[in-house]
Amino acid sequence: MANIMEMAVDIVAAHASTTPMSKEELISELNEVHSVLSALEKGALLETEEVVEETPAVSKKKAFGKDKIYCMICGKGFKTLSRHLKTAHDMTASEYRKQFDIPRGQSLASKNYSESRRQMAIDRDLAGNLARARAARAKK
Q1: Comparing C-alpha atoms, which of 80, 114, 113, 108 is closest to residue 94?
Q2: What is the CA 23 to chain-centroid distance, rounded?
Q3: Cα 98 to the chain's mean position, in Å?
Q4: Which of 25, 57, 87, 100 has the fewest CB atoms within 10 Å of its CB?
């Protein structure tokens, strides 16, 4: 029995060293880890349930910054979220919007990044090039 308790203490101590936790959270996690280790020792099959985050890692207000947009699932900052959502969380932008109630009109790219891309398109006259290409295609 002491062996399981020591393992539980080591696991919780490792987690607490990287994550700030209150006294109640430490006790709760210690009890949970101990019960899981005890069940594993007895050979009981554990039911795994998908953990759904009730609260986002970052508030909606802080998520959409000027220089970065923060993932509300893990809290990491990016210029755009689309690629991160697909690779790290295996979800589409529409699934992300639905999960966190984000309107379709809200861009999943930082404001500065969007503005720099817009300015680059203006500088290169991409709209004019598109209009000329469409006109040339219509003549054929």
Answers
A1: 108
A2: 27
A3: 14
A4: 87
Cα–Cα distance for residue pair 44/34, rounded to 1 Å: 14
Q: Which of 47, 46, 80 is nearest to 63 (CA)?
A: 80
pLDDT, block means (10 residues), the chain with 140 residues: 81 85 86 86 66 69 90 91 91 93 92 95 94 93
Kindly tell me the sign of the dihedral angle through the C-alpha atoms of 19, 25, 27, 29.
negative
> Residue 30 in contact with residue 9, Cβ under 8 Å?
yes
The alpha-carbon radius of gyration of the chain (Å, integer) is 24
As a whole number of angstroms, the distance between CA 76 and CA 69 comes to 8
pLDDT at 1: 52
Q: Read off the pTM.
A: 0.54
User: Which tokens sit at 14?
Assistant: 């490792």
